[in-house]
Amino acid sequence: MSGPAPARTPAADRSPAWPWLLVLVLAVAAGVLLAWRPWAASGGPRPDVTPAAATSSPSPAAEPSPPGGTTAPGAFDGATAAALFLTDAELAEAVPMADGMSLTDVDGAQWGLPVLSTVDPPSCTPAVTIVDEEPAAYLRRFASDDTVTVVQSVAVLPDAATAQEAFDALVETLGSCGTYQQSSPGTDGGAWTAGPPTTERGAVSTVVRRLTLTAEGASSPEVEVTALAGNALVTTSASGVDPGTDPADPTALAGVARSSAERALAGLG
Q1: Deepest of 9, 57, 67, 173, by most Cβ within 10 A of its Cβ?
Q2: At 237, which CATH number?
């Protein structure tokens, strides 16, 4: 563990919505709101508060992504994609508030929207799912305390050309989705307001943006970057609980996303 522990917000200063907002941020940043329910592992009751916003056509159920899948030779697969996750040092550089933290695997990570969960407008669905179709492999890790949550997801596609097409489609989607919502039946809604994305093309291309998630009367600032690394899309989301403080610098986060992906690509040989 390196560096001082991040300052913690006094409990008295937190909104009553804070505990559920943190769970909400964790799920949202994972890119599949409600697909992973962290309370389920302990056998506890499902919280009454979960985010999301409706459209007329339900989304298909999310299924666990296969550990391997079919990918081109010399490309990432379910076994090698873990190299794309941030190291502890990279995490601290990308999100200084997360200094001293480590990303932890999310068991049974799922891609896609949960049953009957929808995004409004539907054209903004890739802003949540990142890709339009289930990837050949899907992995997710997270780190969280009471000041910041960092979630990384890796979507492995069959080949680099497919990944490039998916990245280009995502850039177009983010450019046209300044506001959108996600909902599931019987839950209150969560809504995002996003700033314009910044795209940098290169050996590893990135698209980064600032967002604000509003739910249960509380707001959470977010910074999210997606990097195109060969045949994989790597999305890193940093979410805070202080509406007045960005959880990460977008330029720094994008820079680390590129260098981390370059490291992993070099390791493919």
Answers
A1: 173
A2: 3.40.1000.70
